[in-house]
From TrEMBL:
<feature type="site" description="Important for substrate specificity">
    <location>
        <position position="162"/>
    </location>
</feature>
<dbReference type="GO" id="GO:0009117">
    <property type="term" value="P:nucleotide metabolic process"/>
</dbReference>
<dbReference type="InterPro" id="IPR029001">
    <property type="entry name" value="ITPase-like_fam"/>
</dbReference>
<feature type="site" description="Important for substrate specificity">
    <location>
        <position position="78"/>
    </location>
</feature>
<dbReference type="GO" id="GO:0047429">
    <property type="term" value="F:nucleoside triphosphate diphosphatase activity"/>
</dbReference>
<comment type="similarity">
    <text>Belongs to the Maf family. YhdE subfamily.</text>
</comment>
<keyword id="KW-0963">Cytoplasm</keyword>
<feature type="site" description="Important for substrate specificity">
    <location>
        <position position="20"/>
    </location>
</feature>
<keyword id="KW-0546">Nucleotide metabolism</keyword>
<dbReference type="InterPro" id="IPR003697">
    <property type="entry name" value="Maf-like"/>
</dbReference>
<keyword id="KW-0378">Hydrolase</keyword>
<dbReference type="Pfam" id="PF02545">
    <property type="entry name" value="Maf"/>
</dbReference>
<comment type="function">
    <text>Nucleoside triphosphate pyrophosphatase that hydrolyzes dTTP and UTP. May have a dual role in cell division arrest and in preventing the incorporation of modified nucleotides into cellular nucleic acids.</text>
</comment>
<protein>
    <recommendedName>
        <fullName>dTTP/UTP pyrophosphatase</fullName>
        <ecNumber>3.6.1.9</ecNumber>
    </recommendedName>
</protein>
<dbReference type="GO" id="GO:0005737">
    <property type="term" value="C:cytoplasm"/>
</dbReference>
<feature type="active site" description="Proton acceptor">
    <location>
        <position position="77"/>
    </location>
</feature>
Length: 216
């Protein structure tokens, strides 16, 4: 019989196609597999931004957790919120420009909903992490130049703090990695607390060597 390491006890699965989220888990030296959830984000709408991000994160985690019930599955959704409006990923350079004009010289919130599921343990945890980001005043030249780069395309709010857009950011209040796509302090803390990983001990488990430990 072929063993499926994705579905072993205490394996970690990232339910995301975001390369940023993948990189954040890699940086933390967590062994994990990637299974994009295929969730249709346009089909889901929460009542207000925090709930919206949380519901989407849970939908992503749930879709993959059903396929791999023994794994710890992480789903997340990041949105930019200003004036009570959600700025998702811009569909064009022109829309990215409109978003950046709105963000220019002001403070907005980046809300990442995150969800950690382990079906076989009945473990379903969802929460949000909020970071305030303050932009400098952007000139039209800066906006036009930036939106001609590929960077805004697949990023909530039309910018990537970890890339060229770092020059736009005057200050942030809260988790930096939350803006990039995953609140690492909370995610690693939760997985550690529930025995899914032994982070910080030099014994971060790989899916292939996972044992049956851990609690819900
Ligand atoms: C604000 C901001 C967002 N982002 C990214 C993180 C997310 O990938 C993206 C928000 O879109 P999401 O819908 O949260 O994620 P995704 O579609 O990229 O991946 P998946 O749904 O499969 O998990 O914006 C940055 O990389 N840097 C930033 O500064």
């Amino acid at each position: 019989m072929v063993m499926n390491p994705l579905n072993e006890k205490n394996s970690i699965v990232l339910a995301s196609e975001s390369p940023r989220r993948r990189r954040l888990l890699e940086q933390a030296q967590i062994a994990f597999s990637v299974v994009p959830s295929g969730t249709d984000e346009d089909a889901i709408r929460g009542p207000e931004p925090e709930r919206h991000a949380q519901i989407l994160a849970a939908a992503k985690a749930e879709a993959v957790a059903k396929l791999y019930p023994h794994a710890w599955v992480i789903g997340a959704d990041s949105i930019v919120v200003i004036d009570g409006r959600i700025l998702n990923k811009p569909e064009s350079a022109a829309v990215a420009g409109q978003m950046l004009r709105r963000l220019s010289g002001r403070t907005h919130r980046v809300i990442t909903g995150y969800s950690i599921w382990c079906e076989s343990r009945g473990h379903r945890h969802s929460n949000v992490c909020i970071t305030e980001v303050t932009f400098k005043e952007l000139t039209e030249d800066e906006i036009n130049w930036y939106t001609q780069t590929p960077e805004p395309r697949d990023k909530a709010g039309g910018y990537a703090i970890q890339g060229i857009a770092a020059f736009m950011v005057k200050s942030i209040n809260g988790s930096y990695t939350n803006v990039v796509g995953l609140p690492m302090c909370e995610i690693v803390g939760h997985l550690t607390q529930h025995g899914a990983i032994r982070h910080g001990t030099g014994q971060t488990r790989s899916p292939a060597t996972a044992d049956a430990g851990g609690k819900c």
